[in-house]
Amino acid sequence: MSDETDPGDGRPLRVAVIGAGPAGIYTAEALTRRAPVPVTVDLLDRLPTPFGLVRHGIAPDHPKMRAIRDTLHRALDDPGVRFVGNVEVGTDITLDDLRAHVDAVVYTYGAALDRPLSIDGEDLPGSLAATDLVAWYCGHPDADRARVEASLEGVRRAVVVGVGNVALDVARVLARAPQELEPTDMPQHVLDALAAAPVEEVTVLGRRGPAQASFTTMELRELDGLEQATVLVDPADLELSPAAEERIAGDRNATRNLAVLREWTGHRPEPDRVRLHLRFHRRPVRLLGADRVTGVEVERTTVDDEGRAVGTGEYEVLPADLVVRSVGYRGQGLPGLPVDQRSGTVPNEDGRVLRDGAPSAGEYVAGWIKRGPTGVVGTNKHDARETVASLLADAEAGVIRPSGDRDDLVQTLRARGAEPVLLEDWRAIDAAEVALGATRGRARTTLHERESLLSAVRAAAGR
Ligand code: NAP
């Protein structure tokens, strides 16, 4: 190790990564496997479980995608990486205190907030953010069970606003037959509530045209394979302006999407099957209802040459007793770490956090809180490597300095009454979920309460 890269006393470079989702795990992996100097990583998460949106975002009926956790687990098993769950930065430990334990911090805690539509009626019962519904069906401990389950009760017609992949996840889960969801790791109360909802119609609503939809073709095509739903597309929605034709010609995803949508214009509603409408050129202007949602008023739109939705002044009402807005995620700051309110990201340059426009020594960012809520799980790998390259270059240049000589982080946390969950504790949770699933012949059932997660840890530790 050269003098420049040695943080001062011959010990490894010590890095805390905040957020154990894919971005955090790829960051830890890049730090421990690709650095030319020894690095140790404390991988913190406010939940007692790792994997972030792989656990609490990827739809449970996508088991192959969720299996990426097995690959991510390899980084957790690296002796240079220590998973420290159930620790909230800002509550259990301040950012300043944490920084005193390590030489550098990488923020990878994602973008957990929903974006609002900012229209009348949005707060009515029966109006949910996709983030609420997704958290609930994935068994996130902070999900608002009461609100989501009350909103689902008796639902016949649902409208999902937005045409991204999350909107398709939500529409698919709502339209699935109970027997399709039965083998998943959804908590039992989720399976029961979804099975009890008498859904007859789900409408996915794009404010622009099919040329501008952001869902991907594989996810779109999957809608046609649902056991009890028929996908319905109005050919009038697929008529393209010359500008849209041009856009589609240069965009393979849009070209494929349009081909799939065109195939479906011949579908007709069938008795006893959920009608799964994909509708475009309609933007919601207001949610209707007195004590709960009864419909969505939408304005018809055209798309201008710059690709913006322009209202036509024609309105219609889509009856609905559930409206789920799936219009993107938004990041928030941590105490001591501001975010740009407009973008919902931490200002940065190649992953170096900018404070007052200048790089802040020893502070980095990766994943959705760095670049915004876009891309698939694998996108975070490249993103994390870029950030780690900046961090290692700074270490090499002597920008990162050893910060103090404090007690071990986990001891400090325990001394303050926190209950950090380490890798062997997570293994106990993992085993408890597998055992719970086995009671109903499933591979796993997600434990959805913080207390049950911690009970599994305590039971395994004999506490
Ligand atoms: P997204 O792809 O950005 O989609 C957001 C949708 O909301 C867009 O259709 C957008 O339309 C619409 N929208 C935004 N504001 C609106 C408004 N005020 N009124 C009506 N519509 C509005 O985001 P996402 O679906 O949340 O997904 C986030 C990321 O995760 C994406 O990169 C996605 O691919 C990824 N993801 C992947 C998978 C998978 O691979 N299976 C699954 C889930 C998520 P405009 O385009 O008109 O703004």
UniProtKB/TrEMBL annotation:
Chemical reaction(s) catalysed: 2 reduced [2Fe-2S]-[ferredoxin] + NADP(+) + H(+) = 2 oxidized [2Fe-2S]-[ferredoxin] + NADPH
Pfam families per the UniProt record, alphabetical: Pyr_redox_2
Record keywords, A-Z: FAD, Flavoprotein, NADP, Oxidoreductase
Binding-site positions, NADP(+): R207, R208, E219, G375
EC number: 1.18.1.2
EC top class named in words: oxidoreductase
Region of interest called Disordered, as start-end residue ranges on this chain: 335-357
FAD/NAD(P)-binding domain segment(s): 14-179
Binding residue positions for FAD: A23, L53, V89, W368
Name recorded for this polypeptide: ferredoxin--NADP(+) reductase
One function term, GO molecular function aspect: ferredoxin-NADP+ reductase activity
Cofactor(s) in the UniProt record: FAD
Similarity section: Belongs to the ferredoxin--NADP reductase type 1 family.
